[in-house]
Design a protein that fits this description.
Two copies of one chain form a homodimer.
Chain A lengths: L1 E5 L4 H10 L4 E6 L2 H14 L5 E6 H7 L2 E4 L6 H7 L8 E4 L4 E4 L2 E4 L7 H8 L5 E4 L6 H5 L8 E6 L2 H12 L5 E6 L4 H5 L1 H11 L5 E7 L4
Parallel strand pairs in A: 1-2, 1-4, 2-3, 4-5, 5-8, 9-10
Antiparallel strand pairs in A: 6-7, 8-9
Chain lengths: ~220, ~220
């Protein structure tokens, strides 16, 4: 499959490129194509040339992707989706985007009026694009480190069964990562708010590379 | 310590009574004192007479408690706190209350304008009462079953350091339960919204007695 990483030159983009390049064709996108090409070379170097990874501008990446991941901060969601409006076809768009702020030592969840970044994106992007909300709480440092298995769960929201199953499959390709169905896209706010909560807990309890795991209480 | 369980005749109230009766004097409260007395007898029976557990009306329970736990559904928060307004002194009040609804197979987080049940309670209850938000995601079935250790974390929000530490201590008295600091009371919304999210995940992924655990991603 061809997977575009929109704004994919940062930690989370590199992490996905590293984890999926063995099975998929990865297209790193950036506002500056040159920066994306450098990032693609760096990922290729780490993988010792295994896997197909290219870098290009965001629009070209999106046009060529069957799946696209929005590796952008919430602040760019509106401008990026508007700038790219000519490049959508029938992709599956994955949103790990979280609207949050940091004020007075506290991360706060600051959802838009739509209730979540994913619901807002739904309103900005053509209907034919299927949006799946996922990977909000994945630890970028662990994702980038191929020696690590990931113990934190991926909570997935979306309205299209087929697209959701595809994202489940992509999550399972990352060592030990477990996807869980967290409901329709309208439930995305409850999942997105985990990220600022986790960041607060990590800071206050001196936890490193924090993630979230759903457990079942069992009899001993 | 004397711990009042306001509306404590249900699953979660019985659970706390069972878990804490070894170290504390438990006062189960209910709108109907008779119902609370029956519940106290039942808990005593399970504990084979070990521990001091009494039942009374909510106002008397609150008046006698140094710590009080609001074991009530969100729908009763406003009326219970108003009805009990003459019974507050300088208690530490623990709120595990979660504002949520169930519509079209989906649990939704429905916070009041204050942002959370705990923040709303803060506005309804005298200033001298210290409010701590905690135990929202604890599994009532596991809490009631003394043979079980609890693996789900307790995420604690509050503005008073001493009260927070006391609640940490109470959590630690429950076998294997781990309290984590999730920030000030203003962060309670992010924690309260975990409950409807967990209920959705449990339903959709066929998980039993679900809880949430914060993990650290580690190198293998």
């Amino acid at each position: 499959m061809k997977i575009a990483l929109i704004g994919g030159t940062g930690d989370i983009g590199s992490g996905f490129a590293l984890r999926w390049a063995g099975q998929h064709e990865m297209i790193i996108g950036s506002r500056k194509a040159e920066k994306a090409r450098e990032s693609a070379l760096e990922v290729s170097r780490i993988l010792e040339g295994k896997g197909k990874i290219t870098g290009t501008d965001n629009a070209t990446a999106l046009e060529n992707g069957e799946v696209a991941v929005l590796c952008i901060p919430y602040e760019h969601l509106s401008s990026v989706t508007t700038d790219l409006k000519g490049s959508y076809s029938d992709q599956i768009l994955i949103s790990p985007v979280v609207p949050m702020s940091f004020k007075g030592k506290l991360f706060e969840f600051t959802p838009p009026s739509a209730g979540s970044a994913a619901a807002q994106a739904r309103g900005l992007i053509p209907e034919k694009v299927r949006i799946i909300s996922a990977f909000h709480t994945i630890c970028a440092a662990a994702l980038q480190d191929l020696s690590r298995a990931l113990k934190g769960d991926v909570l997935v929201c979306g309205d299209d069964k087929e697209a959701k199953e595809l994202v489940f499959g992509l999550a399972k390709e990352i060592r030990e990562l477990r996807p869980l169905d967290a409901g329709p896209l309208s439930a995305s706010g409850m999942v997105e708010s985990l990220t600022p909560m986790l960041l607060n807990i990590a800071r206050r309890n001196r936890m490193k590379d924090a993630g979230i795991r759903i457990i079942e209480e069992r009899r001993l």
